[in-house]
Amino acid sequence: MITGAAGALGRAAVATFRAEGAHLLLVDRELALLYDAFPDLVGDDHHVLSAGDVTDIASMQSAAMSAVDAFGRVDALVHIAGGFEMGESVHQLSRESWQRMMDLNAWSFAACTHAVVPHMLAAGRGAIVAVSARSAAQGVAQMGAYVASKSALQRLVETLSAEVREKGIAVNSVAPSIIDTAANRAAMPGADSARWVSPHTLAESLRFLCSEAASAIHGQHLVVSGLS
């Protein structure tokens, strides 16, 4: 199950997991985004495309069940969906900005794990990987709500890991610096994008943390920073 599948990192993750023969449940907020990103997967019995709100438990449970119905189980959750905002200074921070970041980056993890963890517990195994951020480690000016929400995500990853690691489920995150996407290049035209992290490289890190080779890694945040 890959959330935010139609985005730049989502598309790279889909390509990486498809290359190893995985059956995929691709989730994004609108089916049209998924159809545009993956026209060759529309109607493909090996994959499921599902519109869903990652902040809504019922929506994520419905998406997860579509994978269970199609494939019998959910082996892994790769939670990419989230949000980023440069915002106000802390002393000017609006409740709306705070809630938006917390919902997209922290609560969404809880909503998605509501949907998949029961299936993984029943199977006695599973892997969950969230996309955090290197900036979660410390405060950054004008990024208070974003940094706080990614830090909250990391604490949720650690907590869930402590709760389910004895039951065969590995829970971790990747913490990238700036990802080399078209949107980031447009937003920072003067920056040296060669120093950023490519979506493909980050997708390989996600794949590793879902693999048997990473089954002994629990509650960690893999920093993937390129040269930045």
One letter per element, helices H and strands E, the order comes to: EHEHEHEHEHEHHE
User: How many domains, as an integer?
Assistant: 1
**Stretches with pLDDT under 50, minimum 5 residues:** none
CATH architecture term: 3-Layer(aba) Sandwich
The coarse overall form would be globular
Computed structural class? alpha/beta
- The CATH class assignment is Alpha Beta
- Percent helix, as a range, is 40-55%
Number of helices: 7
What's the alpha carbon Rg, rounded to whole Å?
A: 17 Å
Largest sheet: 7 strands, parallel
- The end-to-end span amounts to 30 Å
Strand content: 5-15%
Oligomer: single chain
Number of strands: 7
Folded structure, characterized:
β2, α2 (31-37) and β3 (47-51) form a beta-alpha-beta unit. This protein has a seven-stranded parallel beta sheet with strand order 3-2-1-4-5-6-7, sandwiched between helices. It has one domain (2-224): NAD(P)-binding Rossmann-like Domain (Rossmann fold, 3-Layer(aba) Sandwich). It is of the alpha/beta class and 228 residues long. The two termini are 30 Å apart. The longest helix is centred in the middle third of the chain and has 29 residues, at 95-123. The chain has helices at residues 8-19, 31-37, 57-71, 95-123, 144-164, 182-187, 199-209; strands spanning 2-3, 24-28, 47-51, 76-79, 126-131, 169-176, 221-224. The radius of gyration is 17 Å and the shape is globular. InterPro entries: NAD(P)-bd_dom_sf, Sc_DH/Rdtase_CS, SDR_fam. This is NADP-dependent 3-hydroxy acid dehydrogenase YdfG. Keywords: Oxidoreductase. Belongs to the short-chain dehydrogenases/reductases (SDR) family. GO terms for molecular function: oxidoreductase activity.
